[in-house]
Structures are given as structure tokens and as C-alpha cells.
């Protein structure tokens, strides 16, 4: 009963951290989307120098652990650039830049899964390559990417717990704060795990509903 009492007393404080975690995830996913789509287009349709530069970016952010990136940017690059970012903004930016690398591969795969003749057909109709990509290729690729995008959402949510290392007051940081004072580590971290599970489940369900909404009956792509 003591563990339950501690959880109930700490729950409002920890739930405030859930809002922080969601804000980090939403910003990171949004930045990853805004950067990942143009990068995917560049990887598929861009000239060799563009493909090389994007490939280097993807290689770096996919190859370096998130924890190392957190310290590298928060204590190094941001200071070097004289960027006065708080912990939440810094974590969101690092996760967003990392998500962009992964999302570029999601969208690249979706673009390459489409029939290659579609862009040629767009040219035959008098459309430029840019018009064909924006109006024909990308809408289909974005729709096909939703299942993989929901997986990226789950990954970013779990990675957001690393915000603890720079002091951002998310779910994990607030749980650790309470646990270090009450010594009820097991009960409190089980509670944190349940919160992460619920947020993951709700987000994935929403993306599944979106996938069903944009699905075209009878179309296999």
C-alpha cells in the first residue's frame, strides 16, 4: 500500500513530464518529416554530389549512438555555435536531426517502391519533374510510409527518455527524481513504463487509423 500511495502522490508531477515527452516526440517527428522528405527525394532523383552529401548525413546520424549525439550537441556543437538552448529544445533538435536520417530512408524506400513509369507519364503530360514528384510521387510515398512512420514514432518516444542525461524534465527524469527521494524505485519505474506503453499504444493506434483513412480500396500500393 505504501508503494501505491507514493505513486498516487507523485502521479500529477510525473504526468507533467508526459506532456514534455510528447512535446519532444512531436517536434522531433515533425522536424524529421520536414527534413526527411526532401532528403529522400534527393537520394532518389538528385545528382551524385547531392546523394553523396545526404548519404554522409544519414551515415553519421544512424551510426552514432543517440546518447553520444546528446552530449556532442548539447555540450559541444551548440556552445560552439553560441546557441542558448534549454534542455528540452536541445533534446528535441538532436532527436529531430536523427529522425530525419531514418525517415529519409523510410520515404526513399516508399518512393522506390512505386512504378518508375509514373514520373515518365507525368512528363508526357507536360509536367516538370518537380511537379510530377510533388503532385504524383510524394502523395503516394507518404501514404505508403505511414506503417514505418508509426514504428519511428515508437522509437523516438523511447529515445526521448535519454533527455534525462541533460536534465530535461520528462517522464523518466521526474520519475527518477521522485524515486531518489522515496526509495520506491521499482514501483515508480513500473509506473513510468506503463505511461510510456500507454502513450506508445495511443500514438500507434492513431497512426493506424490514419493509414486506414488514406487507404485506397483495391489499390495494392
TrEMBL record:
Transmembrane portions of the chain: 20-44, 56-77, 83-102, 185-208
Keyword Transferase: no
CDD domains: TM_PBP2 (cd06261)
Family statement: Belongs to the binding-protein-dependent transport system permease family. HisMQ subfamily.
Phosphoprotein recorded as keyword: no
Membrane protein topology class: Multi-pass membrane protein
Location, primary (coarse class): membrane
Gene3D superfamilies, per the entry: MetI-like
GO terms of biological process kind: amino acid transport
One Pfam short name: BPD_transp_1
Keywords of the record: Amino-acid transport, Cell membrane, Membrane, Transmembrane, Transmembrane helix, Transport
Name of the protein: Amino acid ABC transporter permease
InterPro entries in UniProt: AA_ABC_transptr_permease_3TM, ArtM/GltK/GlnP/TcyL/YhdX-like, MetI-like, MetI-like_sf
Residue ranges that the Swiss-Prot or TrEMBL entry lists as coiled coil: none
GO MF assignments: transmembrane transporter activity
Organism per entry: Desulfovibrio psychrotolerans
PANTHER family for this protein: L-CYSTINE TRANSPORT SYSTEM PERMEASE PROTEIN TCYL, MEMBRANE COMPONENT OF AMINO ACID ABC TRANSPORTER
ABC transmembrane type-1 domain segment(s): 18-207
Cellular component terms per the entry's GO annotation: ATP-binding cassette (ABC) transporter complex
Amino acid at each position: 500500500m505504501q508503494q501505491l500511495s507514493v505513486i498516487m502522490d507523485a502521479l500529477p508531477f510525473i504526468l507533467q513530464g508526459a506532456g514534455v515527452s510528447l512535446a519532444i516526440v512531436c517536434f522531433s517527428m515533425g522536424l524529421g518529416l520536414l527534413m526527411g522528405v526532401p532528403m529522400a527525394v534527393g537520394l532518389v532523383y538528385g545528382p551524385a554530389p547531392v546523394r553523396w552529401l545526404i548519404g554522409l548525413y544519414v551515415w553519421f546520424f544512424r551510426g552514432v549512438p543517440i546518447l553520444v549525439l546528446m552530449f556532442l550537441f548539447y555540450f559541444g556543437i551548440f556552445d560552439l555555435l553560441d546557441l542558448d538552448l534549454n534542455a528540452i529544445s536541445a533534446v528535441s533538435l538532436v532527436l529531430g536531426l536523427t529522425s530525419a536520417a531514418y525517415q529519409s530512408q523510410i520515404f526513399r524506400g516508399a518512393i522506390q517502391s512505386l512504378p518508375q513509369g509514373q514520373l515518365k507519364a507525368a512528363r508526357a503530360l507536360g509536367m516538370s519533374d518537380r511537379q510530377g514528384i510533388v503532385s504524383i510521387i510524394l502523395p503516394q510515398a507518404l501514404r505508403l510510409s505511414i506503417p514505418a512512420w508509426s514504428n519511428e514514432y515508437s522509437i523516438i518516444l523511447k529515445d526521448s527518455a535519454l533527455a534525462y542525461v541533460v536534465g530535461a524534465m520528462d517522464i523518466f527524469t521526474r520519475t527518477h527524481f521522485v524515486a531518489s527521494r522515496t526509495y520506491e524505485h521499482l514501483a515508480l519505474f513500473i509506473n513510468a513504463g506503463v505511461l510510456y506503453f500507454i502513450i506508445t499504444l495511443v500514438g500507434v493506434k492513431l497512426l493506424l487509423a490514419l493509414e486506414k483513412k488514406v487507404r485506397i480500396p483495391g489499390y495494392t500500393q
